[in-house]
Specification:
By secondary structure, this protein is α/β, with parallel strands linked by helices. Helices cover about 35% and strands about 30% of the residues. It binds adenosine-5'-triphosphate. Belongs to the ABC transporter superfamily.
């Protein structure tokens, strides 16, 4: 797959403090890239640099292999974005808002406007003034506005913030449709792992301005391993049994009471060996290393 957007050592300082540090991001054509990180991690700042709303202190951005400058207007037209809260003319209808946006962008295409409204399922309410819209409807209208001009890359900053479960579900379907049916590339930021996990093809994890990891979801999922977790007050004795009685080497002592065993071993056999050696167990159970565990480890929580 072609990489359509690449950032090179992207860095931003505010008042002498780095809020984004040497970020190297790679977004492939047609994928949904989930940009995941806690509040204040630097997601919005990275997105603002990509869309030329903020100037990087260091580093640069390549879009379709071309290095972006302040004058890359033609390149910026190939991006659509919703960064921070979308603003509309409240007394105007959805359609009128789109018309105004089209005029401002020099894009006159009523068919594209109809398609965009249909895509976000607002075609039936396009005559209502926007002030009567729910947050979810406004969010969908913002997406219609951003996709109306058929951008190749759509950048959405925390699009699910404040939405109810139904609104989130509807938006998720819109994302999938844009990606699968329209071949659009999406960069979506969120601080909610469960949401990103459901739509993203690739995840970029950011904390304190540093991109910790960038990985395909398939790879993250395939790394989800099973392990046996045992909790005991006699962990040194337990480790002795694991190594010398059972010949196990792939285990991790998490804290003085918790041991995780990744080697293939039967639960029964393990239990028997420990009990025979007089190791008192509080619990012994089979577990899965989930994406959530991986996220928590990466974020250092
Ligand atoms: P959130 O989801 O809370 O918006 P974020 O990951 O998008 O978080 P940013 O908004 O990029 O994070 O902010 C990163 C850091 O940069 C924060 O500490 C923020 O206070 C700081 N910051 C952002 N904009 C400015 C600015 N204009 N001047 C000074 N500091 C700023």
């Amino acid at each position: 797959m072609t990489t359509i957007l690449r950032t090179w050592e992207l860095t931003k300082e505010y008042q002498g403090k780095e809020v984004v540090s040497g970020v190297n991001m790679n977004i492939k054509q047609g994928e949904i890239y989930g940009f995941l990180g806690p509040n204040g991690a630097g997601k919005t700042t990275v997105m603002k640099m990509i869309t030329n709303l903020v100037k990087p202190t260091e580093g640069y951005i390549e879009f379709f292999g071309v290095s972006m400058t302040d004058h890359s207007y033609e390149m910026l037209k190939r991006m659509g974005c919703i960064i921070e809260y979308p603003v509309f003319y409240d007394k105007l209808t959805a359609r009128e808002n789109l018309q105004l946006h089209g005029e401002y962008m020099g894009y006159y295409n009523t068919k594209a406007m109809d398609e965009a409204l249909e895509l976000v399922k607002l075609e039936g309410v396009d005559k209502k003034p926007v002030k009567q819209f729910s947050l979810g409807m406004k969010q969908r209208l913002a997406i219609a506005r951003a996709v109306m001009t058929k951008p190749e890359l759509l950048i959405l900053d925390e699009p699910i913030n404040g939405l109810d479960p139904m609104g989130i579900k509807e938006l998720r379907e819109v994302f999938r449709m844009l990606s699968r049916e329209y071949g659009m590339t999406l960069l979506i930021s969120s601080h909610i792992l469960g949401e990103i996990e459901q739509v993203a093809d690739t995840i970029g994890m950011i904390r304190d301005g540093i991109l910790l990891e960038e990985m395909a979801m398939d790879r993250i999922r395939s790394r989800n391993t099973q392990y046996i977790e045992l909790i005991t007050g006699a962990s040194s004795k337990a480790v002795y049994v694991l190594e010398h009685k059972l010949g196990l080497t792939n285990y991790k002592v998490l804290d003085p009471r918790t041991i995780r065993i990744y080697d293939a071993v039967q639960q029964l056999e393990l239990n028997k060996a420990l009990v025979e050696a007089g190791v008192e167990l509080d619990s012994l159970s089979k577990k899965n290393h989930s994406l959530e565990d991986h996220f928590v480890e990466q974020m250092g929580w």
